[in-house]
Specification:
434 residues; transmembrane; transmembrane helix; Sugar_transport-like
Length: 434
């Protein structure tokens, strides 16, 4: 297996990239081919799990099917995203105590799988408000475990994979997930009673198994021991790291840029809501959007990953511009020719382009922060930026909810403007791949 991994790795990268191990430990360099494929498989499996339990598509449909209050649907995306981001300063202080940090990722993945399976069980056994609050409560625990994986994964990636290969690793794992997500969407179309609770529960159970298999693969990553400074008095040490936002101009600039680039994630539920307003079949909309997100990831992630290895800054710029222009096009259609939304291909096409752009934003900023930092600094950068972004996400979620009283187009227009500002901020960031 080791020789097979070496051969495949050599075929995927040119000789210069395959041997470029200047930024990782020499002993870790020998394990790069095997680690590369273990991490790709692990990340790909969890991304599939994320897709089949999507809080923008699948979980809202599940809550609707069990008769949960509509107000709970609005909590799904903020809880899932902010819940994994806000606690990361404390989580990072805890993770820093361990010289080998892959086990934090393994534990987080096992917990996420358990939470997703428990959601399926709750939906089968409970109904109405009780079912809704049970699922939301489990989503809180899921998000905390997701934050543990987020902190650990970037540090393990920085220790085991050389800089010229990190963007493509993220891209190919997303592409792998996209291929399976397409199948999940097609499968939803083929079910006769698509709005029945058990269909969504089966998707969640499938996702739970994927998280556990991913944990098994990730446990096989050959990670060498790293620094453990700051492990004692973890929370105190973590809070002191907030000073980085004052002292480190480059990190501060990146965090502001990333805050503006949240437009791609925050706008997605409003496009789904817009589509549901022009479709009488909730399950058909759910199935088509699940399949569309898979196709978009499959096609775009390898391109964004390759592009990010050359310039993750340019990836963020391009993806932000696409997000902003797409929103402006949708607002224009709504104003001048709203009947076009009734076409069976327009809104699915819009969501397809948005998913491609969001994939670029996500891959670009993940690659940028890993390449920007070095050594133990990487854990601090990730935890500080993610914690602040969590609060920004909650604030922006509240603002968009307030803006929605004037209509979906107002929200989409404002988020498009933020996307343009994000592109300008990203343009001023320094290159980190050189």
């Amino acid at each position: 297996m080791h020789k097979l991994a070496d051969d495949l790795h050599q075929k995927l990268f040119n000789e210069e990239d395959a041997r470029a191990c200047k930024d990782i430990d020499g002993s870790a360099c020998r394990e790069v081919p095997g680690n590369f494929f273990r991490i790709i498989v692990s990340q790909g499996l969890t991304k599939i799990g994320d897709a089949v339990s999507n809080p923008k598509i699948v979980l809202p449909a599940l809550l609707t099917a069990v008769g949960a209050p509509l107000a709970l649907i609005g909590l799904l995306v903020p809880i899932r995203e902010a819940g994994s981001l806000v606690p990361q300063l404390g989580i990072a202080g805890y993770v820093r105590q361990f010289a080998v940090r892959k086990w934090a990722w393994v534990a987080g993945s096992v917990i996420q799988g358990a939470c997703i399976l428990a959601m399926a069980i709750a939906a089968l056994l409970l109904t109405g408000q009780v079912a809704g609050w049970s699922i939301v409560g489990l989503l809180v625990v899921f998000s905390l475990a997701r934050g543990l994986c987020s902190v650990a994964s970037k540090d393990v990636l920085g220790k085991t994979i050389p800089k010229p290969q990190r963007g493509r690793l993220n891209g190919w794992s997303s592409s792998l997930a996209g291929a399976v997500t397409i199948a999940a969407g097609v499968g939803l179309f083929s079910v006769s009673d698509q709005q029945h609770v058990w269909v969504y529960c089966a998707l969640l159970a499938f996702g739970a198994v994927l998280w556990w298999i991913a944990a098994a693969f990730y446990s096989q990553v050959d990670e060498y021991e790293g620094a453990t400074e700051g492990g004692a008095n973890a929370l105190t040490h973590a809070l002191s790291k907030l000073r980085l936002l004052v002292d480190d101009r480059r990190l501060r600039h990146f965090v502001i840029t990333r805050s503006l680039l949240l437009c791609s994630a925050l706008s997605a539920p409003y496009y789904v809501l817009l589509a549901s307003q022009h479709s009488q079949a909730l399950a058909i909309t759910t199935a088509s959007f699940v399949a569309i997100s898979g196709i978009a990831s499959l096609l775009s992630a390898p391109f964004w990953g390759l592009f990010a290895d050359r310039s993750s800054r340019q990836v963020m710029i391009m993806a932000a511009v696409v997000t902003a222009l797409l929103g402006l096009v949708v607002v224009s259609i709504s104003h001048w020719y709203p009947a076009l939304f009734s076409s069976p291909w327009v809104l699915p096409g819009v969501y397809f382009v948005l998913t491609i752009a969001h994939e670029g934003v996500r891959l670009g900023r993940k690659t940028y922060i890993v390449n920007m930092a070095e050594g133990n600094q990487r854990t601090d950068y990730v935890s500080v930026s993610n914690t602040l972004i969590g609060f920004v996400l909650l604030f922006m979620g509240g603002v968009t909810a307030w803006l929605s009283q004037w209509g979906l187009m107002v929200v989409i227009a404002v988020l498009s403007a933020l996307g343009l500002l994000g592109a300008l901020m990203a343009r001023a960031l320094p290159e980190v791949e050189r």
